[in-house]
TrEMBL record:
Record-given protein name: histidine kinase
Residue stretches making up the HAMP domain: 221-274
Limits of the Histidine kinase domain: 282-492
Organism name: Streptomyces justiciae
Superkingdom to which the source organism belongs: Bacteria
Catalytic reactions of this protein: ATP + protein L-histidine = ADP + protein N-phospho-L-histidine
Length: 505
């Protein structure tokens, strides 16, 4: 066998065949248990019936002996009547007469001094297993072979002293003898009925297993038709035509839930693919603008080298190159944020100190602006310091780019959260665009356009970084300018800060 070939298991691959096999195995176990129970009950009930018949026959024998009547040989059950002081049987029949009567009785005679009868009962009998001896004088013919077997035997004693002399003489026993009537319970009837029942149960069980397996197979086949239709329709979905949807059955069962889930998944994939296509198109557009400017300036400079202001051309090329570099870095950062899980290995960061430091070090060279940080109390959060710094810098860059005269940063503790706001006095953002500004490469029609600079990815990166740290970034309504609000989970102060707070040097 080739080592690369897959192993072949006896378990079928088809769901229909597996369901049919599982149903057949389950039914086989159940039917086997039911058959075993029926077998035992039939045997027990038939044995009880045989014992009841033997008891009635024993009662009839006792009545006949009390009347001084010798029982006839013809009987449905084997019996034998023996007496003390007598070698041969008083009477026998039902198969016990197949022994030679002249050779002596088969079953043992009672003792010469039997136990006194119970006065509280009209009559009593005893049941015990006895072995029928094997003798040479036994000739069963075509009847049931009794000799050599051990069977349950019912017997009762009759005292000849309680009978009249005429009745004792009619029975052929002495007046002081004790008669004992034996009735043998044969299991052949119970065994025959049980074997017949077992055969019927076996045939019915096999037919039932086939029918159950077939019913399970076709039931599962019918039930899986919607699944097969869903599979075929899902297989037809391609990147060129992702709008195909699965038909939801009107039954409301699990297949309908599966179809609904698949449609929701396809919708999410379609939306994600559309966003990716839009993102690629926007990124290509954003890259084309600085590349076109850079290429045009270089081509003009090369075409007229003697009339070109080379320092100005180099300055333009450097500015466009920096723009390309910033855009490439933002795209790479977004790609990393899309594939990385939320931050787990975090450190404690003082957001107030970070905001104040950024305010002090932020370069304001292009135009006069006032950048302030309104916060004094420490505000501790958990996360990555570099990512928090990038988040704040993007918010400040956006505010500085659109502010008229002033940008204010506020940090405070509020209901177990740290709230940071960046407010500028620029033209603001329309209410209908409050969420669009966080999308990638969204261009607004007002003065907050990216024509003033930037890559158009700053706010999208800031929101992704906020979500990575289990926070939120929203645009809150203001009458003047735009106000971005960042909410982050508050963290306890580090141990060194607590020690410095309560034990100042």
């Amino acid at each position: 066998m080739n080592a690369t070939e897959p192993r072949r298991h006896w378990w079928p691959r088809s769901v229909r065949a597996r369901a049919a096999l599982a149903a057949a195995v389950t039914a086989a176990v159940i039917l086997t248990g039911i058959g075993w129970w029926v077998h035992r009950e039939v045997y027990r009930q038939r044995t009880q019936i045989a014992e009841e018949q033997a008891r009635k026959h024993l009662l009839a024998l006792v009545d006949q002996l009390n009347d001084g009547v010798v029982p006839v040989r013809r009987s449905a059950v084997p019996y034998e009547v023996v007496a003390t002081g007598r070698r041969s049987a008083v009477a026998s029949g039902g198969g016990m007469d197949n022994f030679d009567p002249g050779a002596g009785h088969v079953l043992p005679a009672p003792s010469a001094h039997p136990d006194p009868p119970d006065d509280d009962a009209a009559w009593s009998y005893t049941v015990r297993p006895l072995r029928i001896p094997v003798r040479r004088d036994y000739d069963p013919g075509n009847e049931f072979h009794l000799a050599g077997g051990t069977y349950p035997v019912l017997y009762a004693d009759v005292s000849a002293g309680e009978l009249s002399s005429d009745k004792a003489a009619a029975l052929g026993v002495s007046p002081d003898a004790t008669l004992r009537a034996y009735v043998v319970v044969l299991p052949d009837t119970a065994e025959a009925i049980t074997e017949t029942t077992d055969g019927l149960l076996l045939r019915a069980g096999l037919v039932g297993l086939v029918l159950i397996a077939a019913a399970a197979y076709f039931t599962v086949r019918i039930a899986l038709r919607p699944v097969e239709a869903i599979r075929l329709l899902t297989a037809s979905v391609t990147p060129n035509d992702p709008r195909e949807r699965v038909t939801v059955p009107a039954t409301g069962h699990e297949i309908a839930a599966l179809a609904t889930t698949i449609n929701a998944t396809l919708q999410r994939l379609d939306t994600a693919a559309a966003q990716q296509r839009r993102f690629v198109a926007d990124a290509a557009h954003e890259l084309r603008s600085p590349l076109t400017t850079l290429l045009t300036s270089l081509e003009v400079a090369l075409a007229y080298p003697e009339r070109t202001d080379w320092p100005a051309a180099a300055t333009t090329a450097a500015r466009q190159t920096r723009r390309l570099q910033a855009l490439a870095e933002d795209l790479l950062l977004l790609a990393r944020l899309d594939t990385r899980a939320p931050t787990t290995d975090a450190e404690t960061v003082d957001l107030t100190a970070l905001a104040c430091r950024l305010t002090e070090q932020y370069p304001l060279t292009e135009r006069p602006l006032t950048l302030t940080c309104d916060s004094t109390a420490p505000t501790y959060i958990r996360g990555n310091l570099d990512e928090y710094e990038r988040l704040l810098r993007n918010l400040v860059d956006n505010a500085v780019r659109h502010a008229e005269h002033r940008v204010q940063i506020t940090v405070r503790n509020e209901d177990g959260q740290v709230v940071l706001t960046v407010h500028d006095d620029g033209p603001g953002v329309p209410t209908e665009d409050a969420e669009r500004v966080f999308e990638r490469f969204v261009r607004l029609d007002d003065a907050r356009s990216r024509d003033h600079g930037g890559t158009g990815l700053g706010l999208a990166i800031a929101r992704d970084l906020a979500h990575r740290h289990h926070g939120t970034l929203t645009l809150t309504p203001r009458t003047l300018g735009a106000c971005f609000q960042l909410r982050l989970p508050k963290s306890p102060a580090p141990a060194q800060e607590c020690q410095r707070r309560y034990h100042p040097l």
